[in-house]
Amino acid sequence: MREIFKRAYDWIDERAKLGDLVDYMGKKYVPINRHSVWYYFGGVSLFLFIIQVVTGIMLLLYYKGSEELAFESIHFIMSKVEFGWLIRSIHSWAANLFILAAMIHMFSVFFTKSYRKPREMTWLTGMFMFFLALGFGFSGYLLPWNELAFFATKVGTDIAGALPFIGEPLLVFLRGGEDVTGATLSRFFGFHVAVLPGIFTVLLGIHLLLVQRQGMSEPIGEEGAEKGESKRMPFFPNFILRDLLLWLLVLNLLAILAVVFPWELGQKADLFASAPAGIKPEWYFLYMFQTLKYIPARVLIVDGEVLGVLVFALAGVLWTMVPFLDRKSQRGEKNKLIDYIGIFAVVYIVVFTILGWLF
Amino acid sequence: MRIPVLSAILALSATFSPVLGQSVRPDQCLECHQALGDPPVELFANDVHLQKGISCADCHGGDPTQEDMEESMSSKAGFRGVMKGDDISAVCGSCHSSTETMRRFGSRLSTDQFALLELSVHGQQGVSGEASILQCTSCHSAHGVVPVDHPSSRVYPLNIVATCSACHSNASYMQRYNPALPVDQLDKYRTSVHGKRNGKGDPNVAECASCHGGHDVRPAGDVKSRVYATNIPAMCAECHGDEGTMGPYGIATDQYEEFRQSVHGVALLEKADLAAPACNDCHGNHGAIPPGVASISKVCGTCHVLNADLFAQSPHELGFAELGLPECETCHGNHAIIAATDQLLGVDEEAVCSQCHSETDRPEGYAVAHMMRQLIDSLETETETAGLLIEEAEQKGMEVTEPKYKLREARQVRFESRTMVHSFDGEQFTEVVEKGLKTASDVKQEAAAAIGEYHYRRTGLGVATLIITILAISLYLYLRKIEKRPRERGHAGTSTQ
Q1: Nearest CA among B265, B168, B262, B259 for reference residue B207
Q2: Which of A62, B209, B258, B474 is most buried by a 10 A CB count?
Q3: Are B261 and B233 in contact (CB under 8 A)?
């Protein structure tokens, strides 16, 4: 058996020069420090994304993205297709875990200031991927065409429509018209399975390439692993196998969630029905939604909702641009202000998400 | 002969009248109009207003003390002449809407008649666009008004039917206001017990105003109308629930109480379900029974059509007729009809079949009743069991939309079988129930399969978790092994180089 593998490897190596890659991998090391645990969340995010791609393709074999058939096709997947219920449930759960893992990954990079030179582009591609992940969540939520999804999309696109100047055309662009209709569903389906994955894949490629080229960042004050001055572990096989171990655990968690808490389908959307009470967006939008509820209808001369949306948009831009704003960390000095901002952001998100959940 | 008496009354009343007490001079209005032979003067001789000391001038204005016609009927003296339109009711209302004035005349009449009239259907604007449809005088007359309990009053129970029908039986008149309203109410009324007794001179039976009200007549579709569907039972009970009124006729007074507790009463009065029958739906409105029904015993079939059709083809139709038994009422009762349950069927003590059928007396019916009850009980048990299984599967998070839909079919068959009971035909009944049993059985199987699938999934999860755990432990052990190896050789697996 070993002989067969060796011959196969030699055959490929002769043509694809695998030796160079193996040499490169063999010389690649991952630093070991008290923040090393956060390194794994990038890998977990990647794993969950792969699961999304695989389960998404499987769902695509049966899903029909039209107003008349979307709900029915998901119902068919869940009741008639062999293991369809499992695939759909895993896809829904993995979507949420993916955003959670990406958030943890993003905050860990933020707190360890890993966005410092030379990793500004890695941060930027990561942030864009995070925004795309939110877009995946928002567009995917509508696809079952159920009551909750329909009204959550209505509210969500309404908020986008509140933006000054670009709000109205943005709303029409997102909805494919003035209202949420079958046209919105077709559009969201297109975004979800073609536009977003296409852009995401390019960004992911750049992101992974940069990570491989630059290696793992070391927190300020704990540098030296690259030069062999502090503890480190080989990327291959140690780090890869540790990643794999975590992936297995995540896979098991997903299976448990999908079987014990199967994702419900709800009632089919009725365009003429009134909105059910307590419409809420997905948990990752909840803190923003809850904030908008607390802002008064008018703040001085500005519409409260517009103000809220603008503040969040500005915060998103500043957050994305942090590698260029945080000069202190760039110089290798500790920047407490960034830590405080990060802590504030985490506390704010957690508190307002809980408030949104409760009220 | 009457005229001098009239003058004497007016002279006297002018002396003592609190309104007109200023003068003892004879009423010049009467003096002159008597001489002219005006009919209103003669009518006025019996008018209740005259007896209370109210003169012509109190309504028509003018100065009755002046002999000179120019002066007595001058606008300066407030002469109004013959009033028209709403001015008529306004003059009546000027006294009849004033508690103080009415009390001064020793009257206990209600003072809200005018207000009620204005809100009533008759208070709406007439086709002329200048005045209400009715004025006070339209029903009470102008110069011959007598108390309502006086046999000569136009609104006395024996006369009011003619008063109302003067307009309501006039098709060309009614067409102007409500072409959809029938004009044969009087004819129908005369066919009813109420109408017949009224025609024979009984003033205590219901006439138009008893049901529709006097001044407050509203369209039947108005929720405030006395004859709005949900108000009818209480309205009828004003007489039919009163022992004093019903005693002389020997009619029971418990119908309303029975009806309130019946399935129809609960639907109509508590749930405001207008599809449920009120008294008139079975007993008729103006006529004796609803149109198209041979007798009240067949009235149930106007709503319960399928049951009535099946009954008409059943052996009970003839049997009941021979025994002089009413159709539906024999088993279900009349005013106190409770919701029909399966307990009515069968040969148990509470079953109505056993009232006529026993093992020895009419045994064929006994056997059919026994079999029907067994089948309907089986169907109930099967559908309930299927429902419980569906519920269990749903609670386990399983997708059971299809069997749930089928369960509705099985439950529908239960209703169908209850209807089919009225055929009293064992074969027809069995055919229907077996259809339901088959559906319930399918539902049970599908629900059980869903529950089985639930356990299969859990088992699968257990196996998958076991495999993943073994893989994870193996991986962990392998990692420990490869990370230990360099240390054994004097290097850290997690190297510092």
Answers
A1: B168
A2: B209
A3: no
What six digits make up the tokens of B49?
A: 């207003």
A297 contacts: CB under 8 Å, gap ≥ 6: A303, A304
How is residue A53 written in tokens? 């791609």
The H or E element spanning position B336 is none
Closest to B443 measured CA to CA, from B475, B464, B414: B414
Interface contact flag, B465 A29, Cβ < 8 Å: no
Select the residue of B457, B479, B496 nearest A228 (Cβ to Cβ).
B496
A263, A93 Cβ separation under 8 angstroms: yes
Cβ neighbours of residue B496 under 8 Å, at least 6 residues apart?
A: A228, A229, A230, A231, A232
Q: Where are the domains of chain A?
A: 32-280
Reported as a single tens digit per residue, the pLDDT across B101-118 is 999 998 889 999 999 999
> Which residues of chain B lie closer than 8 angstroms to A75, CB-CB?
399, 401
Pairwise CB contact (< 8 Å): B495 & A241: no
How many CA atoms lie less than 13 Å away from B138 in the CB half-sphere?
Answer: 20
Residue B186 scores a pLDDT above 60 = yes
Looking at CATH, the fold of the domain delimited by A32-280 is given as Cytochrome Bc1 Complex; Chain C (1.20.810)
Q: Are A255 and A262 in contact (CB under 8 A)?
A: no
Diameter over CA atoms, chain A:
78
Please state the pTM of the whole predicted model: 0.68
pLDDT for B119 equals 93
pLDDT at B485: 66
Which residue matches tokens 């206001």? B177
In angstroms, the first-to-last Cα distance of chain A is 62
Is residue A206 within 8 Å of A125, Cβ to Cβ?
Answer: yes
Residue A224 exposed, middle or buried by CB count within 10 Å (0-12, 13-18, 19+) = middle
Strand, coil or helix: B436? helix
pLDDT of res. A226: 58
Whole-angstrom Cα distance, residue B216 to residue B226? 9
CB contact under 8 A, B461 and A251: no
Long-range contacts of B236-239 (CB under 8 A, 24+ apart): B236/B211, B236/B279, B239/B206, B239/B210
Coil, helix or strand at residue A302: strand
Q: How far is the C-alpha of A222 from the C-alpha of A205, rounded, in Å?
A: 28
Instruction: Name the range with the highest mean pLDDT among A266-280, B149-163, B344-358, B479-493.
Output: B149-163
Partners of residue B469 in chain A, C-beta under 8 Å: 252
Strand, coil or helix: A268: strand
Please report where in the chains the tokens 């001044």 appear, as a residue.
B215
Q: For residues A184 and A139, what is the distance between their CA atoms, to the nearest angstrom?
A: 10
Query: What is the C-alpha to C-alpha distance for residues B201 and B158, in angstroms, rounded to an integer?
Result: 7
Percent of chain A scoring above 90 in pLDDT: 69
Tell me whether residues B496 and A230 touch, CB distance under 8 A.
yes
Residue that the structure tokens 């802002």 belong to: A295
Residue B251 in tokens: 């009619």
Residue B397 touches chain A, beta carbons under 8 Å: yes
